[in-house]
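Extended Data, panel c. Modelled sequence:
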Amino acid sequence: MNLPFIHGKTFQQKNYTSSILPKGEYDTCIFVSCNFENSDISNCIFIECEFIDCNFSNVNVMHTQFKDVEFKQCKLVGVQFNNSNDFLRTFNFTDCILDFASFTNTKIDHTHFNSSKLISTDFTNTEAKKVVFKDSDLQNTIFDNTNLEQADFSSAYNFNITPSKNNIKKAIFHKENLSGLLHSSGIIIKS
């Protein structure tokens, strides 16, 4: 399927809840304050795009390709990233809300989650090597059979990781947040 090619365009304050974003290959485009809530961006391609202050809550990303995409101050509640295209999938999130999102069975190595909320987000069977969770809230986030090798949790908080169920080889933690590794053991830590 040959998609229309859109290069270097800026989209501001567009509402894609009633009029759907046209299927296409978006290259180095910027989306500012756009609303995609509950919309369908399936089968689109985004290469080196930036999304700033956009609402992606419950958007359909089936077979959507994200390559070198930056999300900043975006709301991505309930997004099923596991349905997106895994070919060259690379993205980063800064100051985003990713509550109830799913990355199950995906490869997201080197992804950065900076100052983001990932409440009840699912990383089951995810390959997340060298992922950085900088200053991010991981309350009730699910890590099960997750490859977190060399992941950086040094400034993350509210996480609960069972070491025996995940690969945390060479992962980085701060001494102040080690309780997130011990919670499942029933160990009581006093300060």
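The helical segments are 179-182. This feature is highlighted in the accompanying rendering.
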